[in-house]
Amino acid sequence: MNPLLYVAQRGTAVILAVAVAVHLGTILYAVRGGLTAGEILGRTQGNRAFLAFYGVFVIAAAIHAPIGLRSILREWTGWRGRSLDGAMLAISALLVVLGLRAALTVYIA
Question: What is the pLDDT of residue 63?
């Protein structure tokens, strides 16, 4: 694996580990607290910290996942070259667009 991709995947793994823990902790807090969907949206609407957190989460996932998928595809299928890299860039862009759209939707809701 390219050294830059290696460092990027390991770095985003650290970010994702923290983000997933916070995300799951928040879910547990909300569920155990008996919050309704409306109450949750009321707390996230206009909350810049929420948007920043999930923005970082989305960007980290959009970097991390395609690098791992690229390695799997190279190993299992022998797919190599610019076409593979282009496909992974497209997947990364799709993850960014869809993830940030979801976070913005909840932020604006």
Answer: 98
